[in-house]
C-alpha cells in the first residue's frame, strides 16, 4: 500500500488516533483486490470474509426476486465502505450479491484481522459503533423515503445527494434502487431538474 492509499484509508477512520499504532502492521492487514466491470465480489449463499474500503469504482448490493430480477439495496463507491456487512459480522450465508458496476479496486481486511485490530486498538470500537449506527440510520431513512415519497420525490432526493460517479452507472440499477421501472426513471431523468 503506497502512502497516498494509506492516507485515504486513515481518513476513513476519523475517530482513531493513529499515533500509537504500528503503521506497517496496520498496512499489512489490508489486501488490495481488483474486479472487472460486472464481476461478482460476493455471491448470495457465500459467507463474506472481508470488510472493504473502495479505492476506485462503484458496486451494487442486490438480491434476486422470485422472477430472477435484481433488486438493488444499495451502492458503494470511491471512498466508501463496501461488503455484505450482515454476513461479515455474523459469518452467515449472504442473501445478497455484491457486484462491481465499474472496474473496482478495493482494500479488504479479513474478519480475523478485523477482530485483532479491534482487540489491539480499542479506539476502533468507537469508530465501529458510529459506523454501524450510521448504517442503521441510513437504512431507516431509505425505508421512510420508499414508503412516503412519490417516484419523482425519490428521484430528486437521490440525485441531489448521490456522488457524480453513481449518476453514470446503468440506469436499470438506479431505477431498481429507487423502486421504479427503468422507463419511469428515464422519463424523470429527461423531464425533472434537481
UniProtKB/TrEMBL annotation:
Transmembrane segments: none annotated. Residues 33-121 form the Cyclic nucleotide-binding domain. It comes from the Bacteria. CDD domains: CAP_ED. This is CRP-like cAMP-binding protein. It comes from Flagellimonas meridianipacifica.
Amino acid at each position: 500500500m503506497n502512502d497516498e492509499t494509506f492516507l485515504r484509508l486513515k481518513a476513513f477512520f476519523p475517530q482513531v488516533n493513529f499515533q500509537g499504532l504500528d503503521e506497517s502492521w496496520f498496512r499489512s492487514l489490508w489486501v488490495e483486490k481488483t474486479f472487472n466491470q460486472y464481476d461478482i465480489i460476493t455471491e448470495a449463499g457465500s459467507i463474506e470474509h472481508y470488510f472493504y474500503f473502495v479505492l476506485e469504482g462503484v458496486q451494487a448490493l442486490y438480491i434476486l426476486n422470485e422472477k430472477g430480477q435484481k433488486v438493488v439495496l444499495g451502492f458503494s463507491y470511491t471512498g466508501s465502505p463496501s461488503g455484505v456487512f450482515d454476513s461479515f459480522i455474523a459469518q452467515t450465508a449472504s442473501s445478497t450479491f455484491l457486484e462491481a458496476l465499474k472496474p473496482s479496486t478495493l482494500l479488504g481486511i479479513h474478519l480475523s484481522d478485523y477482530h485483532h485490530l479491534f482487540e489491539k486498538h480499542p479506539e476502533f470500537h468507537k469508530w465501529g459503533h458510529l459506523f454501524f449506527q450510521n448504517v442503521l440510520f441510513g437504512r431507516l431513512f431509505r425505508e421512510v423515503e420508499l414508503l412516503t415519497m412519490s417516484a419523482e420525490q425519490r428521484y430528486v432526493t437521490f440525485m441531489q445527494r448521490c456522488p457524480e460517479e453513481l449518476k453514470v452507472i446503468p440506469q436499470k440499477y438506479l431505477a431498481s434502487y429507487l423502486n421504479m421501472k427503468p422507463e419511469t426513471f428515464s422519463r424523470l431523468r429527461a423531464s425533472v431538474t434537481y
